[in-house]
Amino acid sequence: MNYIYTMLFFAAVFMVAACGGDKSGAAGYAAQSAGEAAPGDSSASEMRLKMQGGQNGTLRSDNKKILIAYFSHSGNTKNMAQQINDYCGGDIFEIKTISPYPSDYGDCVDQAKKEQNENARPALASNVEDMSVYDIVFVGYPNWWGTMPMAVFNFLESYDFNGKTIVPFCTHEGSAMGRSERDIKQLLPSSEVLNGKPVRGSRVKSSGEDIKSWLEGLGFCK
Ligand SMILES: Cc1cc2nc3c(=O)[nH]c(=O)nc-3n(C[C@H](O)[C@H](O)[C@H](O)COP(=O)(O)O)c2cc1C
């Protein structure tokens, strides 16, 4: 009888070892080399949760802090910024100049052209309190004369965006992103600047589904 109990004991020990009780064995190593968590390895499973493939080969990292900064003169870009905020959460910041742009369309167009010709940096009315806390910064603007308003150039030059992910979006009436993405990349060579999302200003209110599927594709909202 004692012999049978002894044999049963050794059989049980063998089965526990073979079924993963030993995480330092070949199965644990293979899982770790493949980037998978070995069962019960909390640091590895935490890493797996954090690093998931996003679009365009970018890595998606959950719990990243988002800022949505935008400039808007007549409200279209503001509306798009709010839609992004509704979907992604995060903080929202309006880029405003100390002296407001003329409400008359023609006057505004003239002033914007003059500022662009002069490579002006119109003074900004307020600051982001602590830019260092953000990992992902959406930057929104209307297309003015083929690129961002000069106030947005000023905003981008006013902070340290190194290592952050920048997500441009713009509203326009035909020129889409224009040359703005190239300009942002030039201003922020040490940031990851994603492809921008243009939406026609006159259609921004009815573009909810389009905006939502763009955000879904980015992979780091919801
Ligand atoms: C000064 C100025 C310049 C503009 N230049 C362009 C342009 O070059 N290309 C374009 O497609 N739309 C241009 N637009 C149209 C705006 O980009 C469009 O109406 C935008 O949706 C306005 O956004 P907002 O309501 O947030 O200010 C211009 C508008 C203004 C006022």
Overview of this protein structure:
By secondary structure, the chain is α/β, with parallel strands linked by helices. The protein folds into two domains: 2-51, no CATH class; 55-218, Rossmann fold (3-Layer(aba) Sandwich). Helices cover 41% and strands 16% of the residues. Strands 3, 4, 5, 6, 7 and 8 form a six-stranded parallel β-sheet that branches. Strands 1-2 form a two-stranded antiparallel sheet. Helix 4 crosses helix 8 (208-218). Bound molecules: flavin mononucleotide.
Find the structural class using helix and strand composition: alpha/beta
Shape: globular
Task: Report the radius of gyration as a whole number of Å.
Answer: 26 Å
**Ligand species:** flavin mononucleotide
Overall strand count: 8
- Give the termini distance in whole angstroms: 61 Å
Q: What is the strand content?
A: 15-25%
Ranges where pLDDT stays below 50 over 5 or more residues in a row are: 6-61
What is the share of helical residues? 40-55%
Number of structurally distinct domains: 2
SSE arrangement, N to C: HHHEEEHEHEHEHEEH
Helix tally equals 8
Q: Report the average pLDDT across residues.
A: 80
